[in-house]
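Need a sequence for this fold. Nothing fancy.
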């Protein structure tokens, strides 16, 4: 009988030890490290700002050995980002599925094209500030923003503006913000959405007269003598070859800027340990020499915000965007 009791005592101790070990392995209070490959989703096709940011981020993480695990970039285009957001939302609390985002994360839900908004995900860190460019064909009659907007004040609908985003999203709103500051009746502006990669082609073949896009998307075309940039939305002139030649809207007397902030989110309900891990790694990326070269290459400015700073910034930006959309009558 004593042997049986002793045996049961030993089994009980082993059971308790096993439970304790299992519990400690699930403890999320301590440091977290990824145990498998990480996926970064670009909510659009190849070649755009989201795709470039995601791929350059993965590249520098690997080259600088900031993250040891492999990182894959996956493109999930559609709905101005909504398709990717729905996909990530289904990865609830996963620390292995991240996505890059920017102002459409606010604009698309605000104009009713996505059921998910920024509050449905976990903000990790913002990395950069990119800016908008307003461009025309090289042989266009306008040489600056004021000349363009003087014609638009007379008849806004006579001049078509093309962008790669949906109506009410970034390429549309960045142009609207500058045009409004210049005194144009923004409700009458004719905006053409081309989300299939043909926006530049429409400008070059004369289907439209103005191209609203990101600064980086204009550099090679300017070098090739195909387009000219009438203005950019940064506070001051950008640095770098070609970029330094682009005048700002502000220096042309138009009191408007537009920041295309770009950063990374995770699925809803990421635990604090994995969030802390990624905040630290993205800060390391932002401070690395490799990332400094990438910023210079694409004309991006440093704009790092950790998770808490990012949340506060997003809430303020969301209110500002909502006001603009309401004025256009396209808010939900």
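Here you go.
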């Amino acid at each position: 009988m004593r042997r049986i009791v002793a045996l049961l005592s030993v089994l009980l101790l082993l059971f308790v030890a096993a439970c304790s070990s299992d519990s400690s392995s699930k403890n999320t209070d301590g440091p977290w490290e990824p145990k498998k490959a990480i996926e970064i989703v670009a909510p659009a096709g190849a070649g755009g700002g989201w795709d470039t940011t995601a791929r350059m981020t993965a590249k520098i993480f690997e080259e600088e050995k900031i993250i040891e695990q492999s990182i894959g970039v996956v493109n999930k285009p559609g709905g101005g980002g909504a398709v990717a957001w729905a996909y990530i939302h289904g990865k609830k609390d996963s620390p292995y599925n991240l996505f890059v985002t920017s102002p459409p994360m606010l604009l698309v839900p605000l104009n009713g094209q996505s059921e998910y908004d920024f509050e449905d995900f976990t903000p990790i860190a913002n990395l950069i500030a990119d800016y908008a460019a307003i461009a025309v064909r090289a042989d266009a009659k306008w040489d600056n923003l004021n000349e363009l907007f003087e014609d638009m004040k007379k008849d806004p609908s006579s001049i078509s503006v093309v962008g790669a985003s949906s109506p009410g999203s970034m390429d549309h709103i960045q142009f609207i913000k500058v045009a409004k500051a210049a005194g144009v009746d923004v409700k009458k502006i004719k905006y053409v959405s081309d989300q299939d990669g043909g926006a530049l082609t429409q400008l070059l073949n004369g289907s439209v007269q103005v191209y609203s896009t990101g600064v980086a998307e204009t550099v090679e075309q300017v070098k090739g003598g195909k387009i000219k940039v009438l203005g950019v939305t940064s506070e001051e002139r950008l640095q770098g070859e070609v970029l330094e030649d682009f005048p700002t809207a502000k220096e042309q007397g138009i009191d408007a800027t537009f920041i295309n902030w770009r950063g990374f989110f995770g699925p809803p309900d990421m635990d604090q340990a994995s969030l802390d891990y990624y905040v630290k790694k993205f800060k390391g990326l932002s401070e690395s020499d490799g990332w400094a070269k990438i910023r210079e290459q694409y004309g991006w400015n440093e704009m790092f915000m950790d998770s808490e700073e990012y949340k506060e910034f997003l809430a303020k930006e969301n209110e500002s965007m909502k006001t603009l959309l309401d004025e256009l009558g396209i808010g939900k």
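For context: Residues 263 and 332 are 25 Å apart (CA to CA).
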